[in-house]
Amino acid sequence: MSGELIRCFVAVDVFSPEIVRSVTGLGRELEEAGLVGKLVDPESLHITLQFLGELERGLVERVKEQLSGIAFRAFPIRLKGVGYFPGGGRINVVWIGVKDPTGELFRLQGEVTRRLGELGLKPDKEFKPHVTFFRVKSVRNKPQVLELLAKRSGFEVGELTVDRFKLKRSVLRPEGPIYSDLMVVRATESERASEG
Predict the structure, then answer these.
(1) Catalytic residue among 130, 131, 145, 168
(2) The sheet that has 75-87: what strands, in order across it?
(3) Residue 2: its pLDDT value, please?
(4) Which of 3, 25, 94, 113 has the greatest number of beta carbons closer than 10 A?
(5) Helices (H), 2-48
(6) pLDDT tier at 15 (50, 70, 90 boundaries)?
């Protein structure tokens, strides 16, 4: 089975009870307003640092090598604000914004991109950190939904400490993607730049 392709991406999980409560409540509000679709499973909430697509197993191993060399310290982020893609009058997914007060999330994403770029893996779009939490099938009452989204544009979801990132596998299913961890890279307590 050497020809097997593995669909994968690099991400930061954002699972926490506080965030799940906020996101679930917001999802119910949107459904009541007229959004028809599916809330993303709480355990699957994440910020994509780089989507890699379908890779051969050998390349996945080289990706792991590159990612394992990244050293970073734990840092805080805030989940705040609600928006949707693609924009205008079309609502395909609803997302929560990510605030990066220290700039460390952008630094980490830049390092991931730089290292994976050495393998010829370039990001397909500019990094705009967000957490997709609702996949939309249809909209029953668009004016009401758009009004609620506008009202919630500054919605405070919660704070989170980023102390790891992951290489994740995505298996596409009709009921939604199934994610699993291929690798976890944890933050260092102190810089280990002098090692090795």
Answers:
(1) 130
(2) 35-39, 130-139, 90-99, 75-87, 156-162
(3) 53
(4) 94
(5) 17-33
(6) confident
